[in-house]
């Protein structure tokens, strides 16, 4: 078996953290390796434990989730294996969540999400095979979209097939859904997605969605 996905919880509500930890630790392929009650402590815990995924509350004392996320994503000591950061929010259309994703967070989750959805989201963000809550993510950026910018020259370097894959990924389709639609293997889709992300200098699929909205390509 592969090593379990390592998770850090950062939230100022101890009872909430205890509940989430119980759900995550009930799964053989997931494990909580650290907790923190504010963003500053969260940064320290992440640096110490080097998790795969961080569940980060947006609104916390001392340092909020936006500042903590920005600090972690700019930390060169984590650059070789940066964690995937998922923002936790109580609002469907939270502008702070949109800002966090623009600065590099890998998605967002509502704090009242079903346990099964939470577990699936952690696995999804770690595998990079889909966007968490794709419809909600698109709605978030439709609501809080920035003024449109011209697509950079790198976009013109995509092949016709890569543009087709880009368009489907920008709609939030998973590797499996794209493979079925385009009559390709999932491995081939994954290769195309990797090439698209590399050519556009994007961190992950949710950043692809952001790119599409900000350049009028969604």
TrEMBL record:
Ranges of residues in domain Response regulatory: 6-126
Asked if the Swiss-Prot or TrEMBL record annotates the protein with the keyword DNA-binding, the reply is yes
HTH luxR-type domain span: 151-216
Keywords annotated in UniProt: DNA-binding, Phosphoprotein, Transcription, Transcription regulation
InterPro entries named in the record: CheY-like_superfamily, NreC/VraR/RcsB-like_REC, Sig_transdc_resp-reg_receiver, Tscrpt_reg_LuxR_C, WalR-like
Q: Which residues carry this modification: 4-aspartylphosphate?
A: 57
Which terms under GO biological process does the entry name?
phosphorelay signal transduction system; regulation of DNA-templated transcription
One MF term from GO for this chain?
Answer: DNA binding
The protein in question is named Transcriptional regulatory protein DegU
Under PANTHER family, the record lists: TRANSCRIPTIONAL REGULATORY PROTEIN NARL-RELATED, TWO-COMPONENT RESPONSE REGULATOR
